[in-house]
Amino acid sequence: MIQRLLLQPYLLAEPWLRHSNWMVRRVAQVAVVGIAVVWLALPGAKRSEFGSGDQDDELARLLWASPRFLEFVNGPALAKPIVGPLCRVLVLRLSVHAQMRERASVDERKFLLRLSGPLGQQALRNLLIWQNHVLPSYFQSYDGRQVDIALVLNEGAQSEARLFDLFSVVLMLERVRSFAVFQDQETAIAANSILLSERELDHWRTVGEADDLGNMPRALLRQVERQGTRGGIKLLTHGRKYANDLLKLTLPGRYVLAVALPERKDGDVEPDELEFWLGLMDTLRSRHPQAAFVMLNCLPPSHWREWPAHIRFARHHGLSLQDTICLAQIADGYLGVLDLFGLAAHSAGRPGIYVPLANGDPPGGEEPPLIAKGSQIMAGSRDRVAIEAAFGQFAAAFPQL
Fold it and tell me: At 258, is the secondary structure helix, strand, or coil?
């Protein structure tokens, strides 16, 4: 309360700090210096009143943002042996106080995540879900701030290719400021404990299910499977350009549907799933010849063959993982699972069919119905009968898309 009362007289006095009238100028300067001294003399009140620390250094920010106060501090009027040093010490203390508050609040933006399973398609998807749905719950008023993340991997070696995919994805996440990978929790805590409070260290040691990318709450996953997610992925300029170039050069004038399917542990598409979806795509194209398809997953060399002109594999044309995520966001539509590609396409409003990445137990043991939100069909199940039904519904509405 006292801090709020002090800010108002400061705001009234600050415009007069360099007034042409000597008396007015001196009164304003004495008032500002006095307000700052009182502000610094009440550290206990600041800590108890503002638990979040957002207001503690507000006066310091206002002083440094005032060209009139800086001119007063550095001007020739400060040559007097008492006023000059006093003002400089005052500004220095306010600056140090602001920096200490900033350092103390760093722990509020540092998070420890675990990965109890393999680093693959599901873990990459869960990282986006954590950012969009779990991270905001840690803040009383979340404003999209960026955070620092330390990820502790599961015991056992992780392939370098999948680690490269992980960092490629992190660079596209809107709310991640820095990212580090560790092989065990103690190393992660030791590397970050210098700026962490005891409260945050205790939280790091007791990471819950929602912070485990390999085992996220089933209720949260069901929510995403039924409703998708919103944003969280950058549409990179170079990725959009490369994706546009691919569509213009290889499939000009076509209605292009991006396709992403379940992957194996090594990152290649599941062959059985590919054959099933190829049959559905052929059926769709027989009814709508303008349709074309771009596969976003990698294809193992053992399954390479001569593909028809309406099917392209983005990675075979030199697109990176980041480029293919951008392609999912700008294609005319999307078909496939709700992995990272599917969530990016859904949040970008792409029409299509969205299938859960993994089967779960539906509530009550019944198959969930299809959910059609406009042109976006949420299959709700990996059951092939449900997917075929979704294709029929999508094909029937295709001319109006």
Answer: strand
Q: Tokens 């090594």 appear where?
A: 266
pLDDT (tens, 9 = 90+) of the chain, 401 residues, equals 556 677 778 888 888 888 888 788 888 888 888 887 787 776 544 443 334 444 445 676 677 677 887 777 666 655 456 566 666 666 676 666 665 555 544 445 788 888 888 899 999 999 999 999 998 888 776 677 788 888 988 765 567 788 999 999 999 999 999 998 888 777 777 776 655 556 666 666 666 566 889 888 999 999 999 999 989 999 999 999 999 999 999 999 999 999 999 999 888 999 999 999 999 999 999 999 999 999 999 998 877 888 899 999 999 999 999 999 999 999 999 999 999 999 999 999 999 999 999 866 554 555 566 787 778 999 988 899 989 999 999 998 886 54
The yes or no reply on domain 237-400 and CATH 3.40.50 is yes
Return the number of other C-beta atoms located less than 10 Å from residue 118's C-beta. 16
Q: Where are the beta strands (DSSP E) in 253-387?
A: 255-260, 291-295, 311-313, 333-337, 352-355, 371-373, 376-378
Q: What is the pTM of this model?
A: 0.71
Domain map (residue ranges) of the chain: 2-104, 106-216, 237-400
